[in-house]
Amino acid sequence: MYRARAARAGPEPGSPGRFGILSTGQLRDLLQDEPKLDRIVRLSRKFQGLQLEREACLASNYALAKENLALRPRLEMGRAALAIKYQELREVAESCADKLQRLEESMHRWSPHCALGWLQAELEEAEQEAEEQMEQLLLGEQSLEAFLPAFQRGRALAHLRRTQAEKLQELLRRRERSVQPAAPTAAADPPKPFPAAAVLPTGAARGPPAVPRSLPPLDSRPVPPLKGSPGCPLGPAPLLSPRPSQPEPPHR
Q1: What are the tens digits of pLDDT across the range 92-132?
Q2: Is residue 60 part of a domain?
Q3: Phi, psi for residue 250 in degrees, rounded to 5
Q4: Same domain, 68 and 128
Q5: Could you tell me if 30 and 36 are in contact, meaning their C-beta atoms sit under 8 angstroms apart?
Q6: Nearest of 49, 47, 27, 45 to residue 36 by alpha carbon
Q7: Which residues form a coiled coil (predicted)?
């Protein structure tokens, strides 16, 4: 029944089937009738679907716009906080660069070599001051009571600076030796062959090993009396010649 009603109602306005039943003259008249064409387009399902999509998009955009406007104060506050953080970061970076430069200058100024040069200069100055004080004392420009304390302080300072300079030089030498790579060890010389005379033949007969003779302890040996007069020096004592050791017969 519904199909029959749909068939009686005819095709939908604006559908290709509706325009297909029109003649050429009717189509020409339809093209010239703009209000009718506009009405046909508005009544078509496709246009109505697009209109609904447009209205849905407009509603969604309106909701998003309201939400964005509600978040705008928060965005402005975030931008201001970010600008403040960037300013603080810039100040911290400048401060770090300044401190790093001063640290490098201090490290260069107070390096061990610079400290050694400063100690040597202080040592030379103390020695020169001591020499000037000696000259003033010899010329009579300074009394002995005023010379002794000043000279003692100057010599103590010079001794302290000399000791510090020597210790620092020793530390620098140790550091340089530890930093330098170890020198490669020279290749060992190849073993030299023994001379032919030193090599014993395999079948050579060897004598029995000599048995060490047991000697009496030193305390039990009699000490011969030394001959000589009290006024004359003692002469050299005669050396005892060792007795030849007699080889013992081989054990059977």
Answers
A1: 999 999 999 999 888 877 778 888 888 888 888 888 888 88
A2: yes
A3: -65, 145
A4: no
A5: yes
A6: 27
A7: 86-143
